[in-house]
Amino acid sequence: MASVELLSASSARAAVPIREVLDRALAGDRLSEADAIALIESPDSSLADLLDCAAELRDRGKGREVTYSRKVFLPITNLCRDRCTYCTFRKDPGDPGAWTMMPSEIAAWSRRGRELGCKEALMCLGDKPEVAFKEYRATLATLGARSTIEYVGRACEIAIAEGLLPHTNAGLMTRDEMAMLRPLNASMGLMLESISSRLRMSGGAHQAAPDKDPALRMKMIDEAGELKIPFTSGILLGIGETVAERALSLVAIRDSHERHGHIQEVIIQNFRAKPEIAMADAPEPEAFEMARAIATARLVLGPAMNVQAPPNLSPGEIELFLRSGINDWGGISPLSKDYVNPEAPWPHLERLGERCAGAGFKLGERLAIYPEYIDDEWLDPAVATNVRAIWERTRRVSA
Length: 399
Hints:
By secondary structure, this protein is an alpha/beta fold.
């Protein structure tokens, strides 16, 4: 991969005329790293053309339906060995708010979510807390689990028994761990966040986060593809990366998908400043920064990719993000808050649907696995029957 230093903003723009890149993207050409950087760094005078082309490509591949997944957010444990400077989710044992969900809680939340029409159980947790905390190792022993991932497997079994489809986002996992969870999940995910290794250096957002090494994360993303796991990834804007690095992160995800065909969706997520984090004074990405990143993602990833932006993190930009080329809003819960961004409430579905309609779109429901992955290649037989049954019920209700 070419270095960001060699593909500077000025050289990329000088070497690659924006209109030429847009025309090649619309013609179905595979965009280069230099092309991607030129798009995401395009001048304000080209922004309207950038968004229009991204929207046209989205319309070709996805039409005018924008989807969401009705989910229960299950924070299995918020203990984490990593210390990212922008995170409020992670805790140490003994901290106010530190917790690990017990099986009875997982069952009760899953049951209530199912009653509220949820189909997805999002398993979200910190990275490898058993490595860092002896107290948590004792908790696992009490629960009869040898590792966090083994306990996540049990949580998935509970959610399935209550009628939900698990989607596990457990941070960095080994190939064997993913293989163990595959029969218990409709899909899995890991945010790349950024391909930039600079963020692991002193003073960077990932300095104290060994599991955020981009090489390790790309290795897991590739291994998920080798295991035929429908997979979610994405980038996080505003954590110290350059604009060019955002483009290169999208290219890295695209390249993995070309190797394995497993990336079912790519999330473009914005950093949110909070008073209790080390990055409390860091600027949040502006709306047009997000729009450029979304449009670049669409043009780099192509018309068939599902491109998502979380609506609760940018409630004022629903129409802008639709114009920029998204076709999905991600998971929305009628039961549990967004524990990663607890200050940002989920949108009301009726109101979100109205705003989508006003922009010329229909809001539709999907599962934790996208329809194009509901087949024998991508689904383990152990979960396939449940996936198909729930999908058929969802389609009948939506019809």
